[in-house]
Amino acid sequence: MKKIVTVLMFTMLFFMINSCSKSDDAAIVDCFGDSILTELKHSADGTNSKIINYSIQYSGSNTVTSVKWTFGDGTPAQTVTGTTGAVSHTYSSAGTFEVKADVTLSKGGGSCTVSPKKNVTVN
Prior knowledge:
Distance between the termini: 74 Å
Number of strands: 8
Oligomer: single chain
Largest sheet: 5 strands, antiparallel
């Protein structure tokens, strides 16, 4: 019986030492909250409907440090720095494309990445 109690105590101690701290849990929750506060915006260029202007609208309290855009048409991803992550992309053909923005936010010495997606129809 003493051996079982000893093993259980060491097991419990091991899990307590290796579990998430309260700050780790808060960082996970903050990152989730930031995903709700991050929106992918787009608009077609007035002179060419195949040129789409993209940006990020972030309404949280952290700082947008970069945005990695994937345009859904097979072209290489494009990374932009700045708080809006604004970029223009020219599509070679019409269609509906899934656009994704990997938005990196700086958070008190750490960082977090949220990835909003949107289907965009190009005429």
